[in-house]
Amino acid sequence: MTLAPESIQAQLPAAVETAVEARLLAAAEQDILARIWAKDPTVFGEPGTPDVANRLGWLDIAARLTPEAGELVAFGEEVRDAGIKDVVVLGMGGSSLAPEVLRRSLGSGDGFPTLHVLDSTDAQAILDVEAKTDPGTSLYVVATKSGGTIETLSAFKHFHALQPDGAHFVAITDPGSALVDLAEEHGFRRTFLNDENIGGRYSALSYFGLVPAALIGADVRALLTGAEIAAAGCRPLDTKVATFGLWFGAAIGELAAHGRDKLTFLIDEPLASWALWVEQLVAESTGKSSPNPEHSDHAVGVLPVADEPLGAVTAYGDDRVFLHVKDGDAADGVHDARIAELAAAGHPTITVHFSAADAATELGNLFFTAEFATAVTGWVLGINPFDQPNVQEAKDNTAKALADRTPAQPGAHDHELQELLAEATPPSYVAIMAYVAPSDAFDAAIADLRAVIRDATSATTTFGYGPRFLHSTGQLHKGGPKHGRFLQLVHDAPQDVAIPGEEYSFEVLKAAQAIGDLETLRDHGLPAARVTLGEDPVAAVQHLTERVRALVS
């Protein structure tokens, strides 16, 4: 088992090629594929390791839910026929990112509701959703595995005050969670009990992804078919050619072990937003301490890089690997020329193909393939890809900031920004974290800022909206290699929104989350600076970009 599948085009450094080949041989000798499919927890840790045996339900969830596809489709049609015009998903992390990808990649079917995803505590973000929807014709999907996610329950309280009729609410959660009781108390239209043996970031093909898909008329059967095709392609085969998921996971793991740990996505439409979901999957699964002797008991991790603007080949450091997800139906792909240039310059590149004409099937395939490959990468790096040991720290500091009403810290001066960026060279990366309402205009301004930093320093840049990123890349920030340099951007919404039944508002909660995360980063000895954005956050980022340009030039 030494060769890459024909469906993958890859150029890897010779040393990595050799390491991948050795890893695949080791996988065969240790029967890794069969053991993963048998849900053997010892693949990922010593017997009894927490969060392994009870986190492998994603392996066969597509097969188990395929018989329910018709029921899910019927539920979507029932909601459409009831006059629902908008579906609002209230969730964080794995509960929101898969629906967001479905919204962007597949859109709504004819006559089906428009999907909105709310994973923010910014008051303006709350008001933006409120302005776009009518409570009388909206269905709110309250999605949380634990049933206790503070952002999700706060949003529920707000929208339930606007629409107290339980028929306008659906719950997706684990059996026995507090949300089950809440849904029964308020007479929710439906409660979907998810398999509790699936972690949030591995839940795209469970009810957390499929219910929103059905509600907007997406092809649920095609999503499941794509996942089952991918699963079949990841099963043990008596061949010298590695399965897709095994090779992919081994390659990403060995690249990271050889210093190429910045997994940079170049993805063709309509699936470009898949990067937002896989960002959480990879970062939260791999960014942690490895007890494996091969890694000298130090932190490991793969940093996923989504939506970074393209730069000149010379702008990229020697810590990159580029994953090109290409529309095979297009004669000349939008990223083909750049991938060829990067490969010619010696950067590792991996290209996989999909058909835009069958986007739902391909998306289901990509969801499962990424889950399986990430699990394999965890095995390669010697870590448990299913736990998140550092996520709770920021939550605890948030609770403390809420209780103490910790005052916000002042914004960074130029010398602090200069100090933050002065050593931002590979393998360092600059993570920009913005506590502000998401918008296309803000995204564009951030893209310019990222380009200026990357082009001047060759450091990788990432971006995340707060608190979304706390449920995505936050684990890697604290638990992964200490290469991050963190720039926190905070904006006060012009109008605050109360949270019914709480002593704090959305803006107070958002501020506490920002303070809590900043303190957690600094507790880990990580360089972090805070910039307060003015009344107009887009203009403020544009001004910040010019400040940074002057500092790094």
UniProtKB/TrEMBL annotation:
| Reaction(s) catalysed (UniProt annotation) | alpha-D-glucose 6-phosphate = beta-D-fructose 6-phosphate
Quote the SUPFAM superfamilies the UniProt record gives: SIS domain (SSF53697)
Per the UniProt record, which EC number(s) apply here? 5.3.1.9
Q: What pathway is this protein said to act in by its record?
A: Carbohydrate degradation; glycolysis; D-glyceraldehyde 3-phosphate and glycerone phosphate from D-glucose: step 2/4
Q: Name one GO cellular component term.
A: cytosol
Q: What molecular function terms (GO) are annotated for this protein?
A: carbohydrate derivative binding; glucose-6-phosphate isomerase activity; monosaccharide binding
- InterPro entries in the cross-refs: G6P_Isomerase, SIS_dom_sf
Q: What biological processes does GO assign it? A: gluconeogenesis; glucose 6-phosphate metabolic process; glycolytic process
Note the PANTHER family from the entry.
GLUCOSE-6-PHOSPHATE ISOMERASE (PTHR11469)
Q: What is this protein called?
A: Glucose-6-phosphate isomerase
